[in-house]
Amino acid sequence: MHFYFIIFSTIFALLISYLRYKYQYWELLGVPQLKMNYFFGNLSRIKTIHKTELLHEAYQEFRGKAKLVGTYIFTKPIIIALDLDIVKSVLIKDFNKFTDRFEQRKTVVNVVHQHLFRVEGTRWRPLRTKLTPTSTSAKMKYMFPTLLTVAQQLGEAFSKQLTKTS
């Protein structure tokens, strides 16, 4: 009986040591990090609140204090950029270094998920090459009145639907 207790205690101690080591990643780099649970990282609260609320709380807690905040999904380190200049650098200037920003299942073939922020590097580069010329400031100014009209029509359609259902 004591043998099993010693084995279990040793395995548990090794697991805790491993998790402590993994959860020091941002601390060793000097990046502030969110408080986390040793077994779930920062996902322990994801059951009770939406992930965008968790990100908003991180932003509110570290706004003005840090440009980056570290967090974890299980033991995988994730960085959250709070500074607008860093966000612009990642999404515009250094975009070719950050092509795979989100991890998704390979089997999912959903049209909604096939946009520039979600597709992987092999599909992202040609898609960005095709879409970049459509996003010039002149073309955006030309499209704005049409987008405004469609947005107003969509708002009216939502209002009608809400009055029907209430």
Secondary structure elements and pairings:
Elements: H1 2-22, H2 25-29, H3 51-62, E1 68-73, E2 76-81, H4 84-93, H5 121-131, H6 137-165
Antiparallel strand pairs: 1-2
Task: Please provide a written account of the structure.
It contains six helices and two strands, in the order αααββααα. It has 166 residues and is mainly α. It has two domains: 83 residues, no CATH class; 36 residues, no CATH class. Strands 1-2 form a two-stranded antiparallel sheet. It is elongated. Its main location: endoplasmic reticulum.
The helix-strand sequence is: HHHEEHHH
How many strands? 2
Mean pLDDT: 81
Distance between the termini: 65 Å
- Strand content is 5-15%
Q: Which regions have little confidence, pLDDT < 50, spanning 5+ residues?
A: none
Q: Specify the overall morphology.
A: elongated
Strand order, main sheet: write it out.
Answer: 1-2
Summarize the structure.
This protein has 166 residues and is mostly helical.
Question: Can you tag this structure with a few keywords?
Answer:
mainly alpha; 53% helix; 166 residues; two-stranded antiparallel sheet
